[in-house]
């Protein structure tokens, strides 16, 4: 049995019948509380074999303590008609019984074996062979995104301020245009001065709207298309 013995340790025992008759077998141990044997008895056909699992229960292992546990495999030829296995063993004569004795050996894995198992269980390191020379570039995607966002917000605030300023100027010019229209209407003489003022007041509003539209178009083309 190979340790560690902190859990159940199982060892298989293979029994083979080389004769031309059926053979009954039974597995016995000197420490029945320490072992679980499945199957512990049965019949083996001629030329066949059976595997017996011997399960050692967990215990505190002491390397200085010598093992005194033993197993015995007892066999006998099976009678023609078998109805009761217990009766077969009770009625069997001593000269008809055959037995094989086995001594238990406990072994702990060496330190080198433990190290090899640990190294084998570790995953192999993954190397990036595409770029072997030079330091790895640092990711700048987050900082660049933050910088662009901050610039965009500042640009939006600046444009909002300009829009508010232009809106005020537009309102002022519109009021001035209304005043000039009133003056033009009140001027019955139809003088060239009144006509010129009316034309200037009516033409100033479309020119201002064209300037505002050009600013918005240039901003969106520069940020989202280019």
From TrEMBL:
Q: What is its main location?
A: other
Q: Where in the cell is it found?
A: Cell junction, Tight junction; Cell membrane; Endoplasmic reticulum membrane
Which of UniProt's keywords are assigned here?
A: Acetylation, Cell junction, Cell membrane, Coiled coil, Disulfide bond, Endoplasmic reticulum, Membrane, Phosphoprotein, Tight junction, Transmembrane, Transmembrane helix
Q: Which family does it belong to?
A: Belongs to the VAMP-associated protein (VAP) (TC 9.B.17) family.
Q: Where is this region: Disordered?
A: 114-144
Cytoplasm among the record's keywords?
no
Q: What is this protein called?
A: Vesicle-associated membrane protein-associated protein A
Looking at the UniProt entry, the stretches that span the membrane are 205-225
Short name of any one Pfam family annotated for the protein: Motile_Sperm
Give the organism, scientific name. Answer: Aptenodytes patagonicus (King penguin)
The gene designation is Vapa
Domain of life, per UniProt, equals Eukaryota
Q: What does this protein do?
A: Endoplasmic reticulum (ER)-anchored protein that mediates the formation of contact sites between the ER and endosomes via interaction with FFAT motif-containing proteins such as STARD3 or WDR44. STARD3-VAPA interaction enables cholesterol transfer from the ER to endosomes. Via interaction with WDR44 participates in neosynthesized protein export. In addition, recruited to the plasma membrane through OSBPL3 binding. The OSBPL3-VAPA complex stimulates RRAS signaling which in turn attenuates integrin beta-1 (ITGB1) activation at the cell surface. With OSBPL3, may regulate ER morphology.
> Which terms in the GO cellular component ontology are assigned?
bicellular tight junction; endoplasmic reticulum membrane; plasma membrane
GO-annotated molecular function? FFAT motif binding
- The record places domain MSP at 1-107
Q: How does it sit in the membrane?
A: Single-pass type IV membrane protein
- Which ranges of the sequence are coiled-coil? 149-176
């Amino acid at each position: 049995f190979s340790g560690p013995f902190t859990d159940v340790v199982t060892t298989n025992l293979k029994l083979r019948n080389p004769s031309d008759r059926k053979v009954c077998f039974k597995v016995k141990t000197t420490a029945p509380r320490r072992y679980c044997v499945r199957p512990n008895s049965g019949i083996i056909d001629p030329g066949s074999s059976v595997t017996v699992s011997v399960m050692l229960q967990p215990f505190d292992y002491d390397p200085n303590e010598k093992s005194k546990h033993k197993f015995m495999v007892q066999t006998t030829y099976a009678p023609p008609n078998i109805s009761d296995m217990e009766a077969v063993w009770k009625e069997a004569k001593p000269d008809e019984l055959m037995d094989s004795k086995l001594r238990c050996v406990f072994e702990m894995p060496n330190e080198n074996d433990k190290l090899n198992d640990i190294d084998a269980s570790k995953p192999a390191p993954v190397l990036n062979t595409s770029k072997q020379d030079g330091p790895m570039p640092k990711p700048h995607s987050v900082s660049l995104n933050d910088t662009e966002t901050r610039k965009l917000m500042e640009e939006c605030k600046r444009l909002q301020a300009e829009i508010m300023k232009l809106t005020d100027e537009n309102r002022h010019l519109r009021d001035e245009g209304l005043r000039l229209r009133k003056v033009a209407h009140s001027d019955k003489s139809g003088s060239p001065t009144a006509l010129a003022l009316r034309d200037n007041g009516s033409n100033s509003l479309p020119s201002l709207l064209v300037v505002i539209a050009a600013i918005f178009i240039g901003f969106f083309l520069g940020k989202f298309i280019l």
